[in-house]
From TrEMBL:
Highest taxon of source: Bacteria
Family recorded in the similarity comment: Belongs to the ATP-dependent AMP-binding enzyme family.
GO biological process per UniProt: fatty acid metabolic process
GO MF term (any one): ligase activity
Membrane-crossing segments per the record: none
Species name: Rubrivivax albus
SUPFAM superfamilies in the cross-refs: Acetyl-CoA synthetase-like
UniProtKB keywords: Fatty acid metabolism, Ligase, Lipid metabolism
Residue ranges occupied by any AMP-binding enzyme C-terminal domain in the UniProt entry: 458-532
Name of the molecule in the record: Acyl-CoA synthetase
Residue ranges of every copy of the AMP-dependent synthetase/ligase domain listed in the record: 25-408
Length: 549
């Protein structure tokens, strides 16, 4: 033992587990009188937001939620979703934010897989939730349902649970403190993503990673204190890229937006002085489209900074936003790395380049986040880094604290993802001479449409269930609105006949609407001598964003 290990113990005075709950407590303590939430006519400050979150935590605790238990949410970008991100982890419990676009079968599967004990749901989704609850019951799982009746929602929808959200909060005194996990390695969230097999994988993330990524978000963006952040990115997607906790750290304002479209975004920016937002390319394109239709929508809006991720952002979108006066930062990541974990970090010298070159530079996946320990492009066979020549292809890999714990109940997939001591993204890229990463292909057969992942294999499985289909392959096709949409190539069985419209209708019975192919082409599918489909040829036919440039 050396002298620096003697009589220098780790104690509560000098070591505290990292958890983003500490951001909420600090901001409520120091800036409790400052605004925290704007949602329609609703307003609350940070002291009130912390109080409401602590009441929700107390209510969940009374319902039996403890360390390691799962609480699912099916909510739009409303104050209740923010409160759930503060209350659930405060108990050492795990938040499972469900995608509001999923069908009942997948919702039930996910809640059953993560053993959810409580579901907090907005009544807008009651038809789908009702069907999901029936399926959960058939699986032998009972779940407590808490209904949210959002003041900004006036449409139909039944109350399904035994608890009303507001009544539940009113019935419980707030916990004295939002403590978070005692061990920073404890799970904070489980988020489901499609894998190459088409089966959902439960990505388990931890308090340490959420804390560090929340900090990295602010550092990467040089986000000042007291930002006004507009919720255009779904909070159900990778926990809003950890921004519920970043906004808390910076004592900002959550400007909630239940419905996302270009005109509504611009109106919220103007009304509330919004200066930051995150979104997939489709949302940025929606802003451009709204201004093109009515240039007056841009008036009265100050300096705004946007973050874009998802499908590779089209050059026209980056150029268009620059011409609009919006400062766009391109980030890259996956659910397995808490959302964004790399950034096309802008250098001062880039400003001297013409707009076309700036667009090329900003369109790259970039370099690792400040608190991510490693990101590079490696040969997955030899686990050696490729040369920084902008030509040699390899796989993007990450390592560090902003990497998931692993896949829930899937040790085989976890071990494969972490082979060689690095997280394998499955995205193929080059390392450019300045060591910025540029994606060239996607080895995972995943289509990113409107920022949401679609497994091509899942879509193919649906097509194969039609009796006329002999062979099929689904690839990504560039789409000016959605970024990418599924394009299906189909070969029919001898003598069989079916129309594209009939196949689309067939898929609609089996898949969520956004996963259904937008186009079906009846063409011969290229195969190897062993019968393996050569998707790279189909991507080239489709001029897919996944094709090698």
């Amino acid at each position: 033992m050396n002298i620096y290990d003697q009589d220098l113990p780790r104690t509560p005075a000098n070591f505290v587990a990292l958890t983003p709950m500490s951001f909420v407590e600090r901001t409520a303590e120091v800036f409790g009188d400052l605004p925290a939430i704007i949602h329609g006519a609703r307003r609350c400050d940070w002291a009130t937001l912390r109080d409401r979150s602590a009441r929700l935590a107390a209510a969940l605790q009374a319902l039996g939620i403890d360390r390691g238990d799962t609480v699912s949410t099916l909510l739009p970008n409303t104050p209740e979703m923010v409160e759930a991100h503060y209350a659930v982890p405060a108990l050492g419990a795990v938040i499972n934010t469900l995608n509001t676009r999923l069908d009942a079968a997948l919702l039930a599967w996910q809640m059953n897989h993560c053993a959810a004990k409580v579901l907090i749901t907005d009544r807008e989704f009651s038809p789908t939730v009702s069907a999901a609850l029936a399926q959960l019951k058939d699986m032998g799982r009972e779940i407590v349902v808490i209904d949210v009746c959002d003041s900004e929602y006036t449409g139909p929808g039944d109350r399904l649970g035994s608890h009303d959200y507001e009544a539940l909060l009113a019935a419980h005194d707030p916990l004295p403190r939002l403590d978070g996990a005692a061990d920073e390695w404890d799970a904070i969230a489980v988020s489901y993503t499609s894998g190459t097999t088409g089966d959902p994988k439960g990505v388990v993330t931890h308090h340490r990673g959420a804390y560090l990524n929340a900090v990295s978000n602010a550092v990467t963006w040089t986000m000042p204190q007291f930002p006004r952040y507009l919720w255009t990115l779904p909070m159900f997607h990778c926990n809003g890229w950890c921004f519920p906790w970043t906004v808390a750290m910076q004592a900002g304002v959550h400007v909630c937006l239940r419905r996302v479209d270009g005109a509504s975004i611009l109106a919220a920016m103007r009304a509330h002085g919004v200066d930051h937002y995150c979104a997939a390319p489709i949302v940025h394109n929606g802003i451009l489209g709204a201004v093109a239709a009515d240039p007056a929508l841009r008036e009265g809006i100050g300096a705004v900074r946007g973050m874009v991720a998802g499908a590779a952002p089209p050059a026209a979108m980056i150029e268009g936003m620059a011409q609009l006066g919006f400062d766009i930062t391109h980030v890259y990541g996956l659910t397995e790395v808490y959302g964004p974990a790399a950034v096309a970090s802008k250098r001062a010298s880039w400003a001297q380049a013409d707009l076309s070159e700036q667009t090329r530079l900003n369109g790259r996946q970039g370099v690792r986040y400040p608190l991510q320990e490693g990101m590079t492009v490696m040969d997955p066979e030899t686990m050696t880094e490729v040369p920084a020549d902008g030509q040699t292809m390899g796989e993007i890999m990450f390592r560090g604290n902003i990497v998931m714990k692993g896949y829930l109940k899937n040790p085989t997939a976890t071990a494969k993802a972490f082979e060689g001591g690095w997280f394998h993204t499955g995205d193929l890229a080059v390392l450019e001479p300045d060591r910025y990463v540029k994606i060239k292909d996607r080895s995972k057969d995943i289509i990113i449409s409107g920022g949401e992942n679609i497994s091509s294999i899942e879509v193919e499985d649906a097509l194969y269930r039609h009796p006329a289909v002999l062979a099929c392959a689904v690839v990504a096709r560039p789409d000016p609105k959605w970024g990418e949409t599924p394009l299906a190539f189909v070969e029919l069985k001898p003598g069989a006949e079916v129309t594209a419209e009939a196949l689309v209708a067939h898929c609609r019975q089996l898949l969520a609407g956004y996963k259904v192919p937008r186009d079906i082409r009846f063409e011969p599918i290229p195969k190897t001598s062993t019968g393996k489909i050569q998707k790279f040829q189909l991507r080239e036919r489709a001029k897919s964003a996944s094709a090698i440039e």
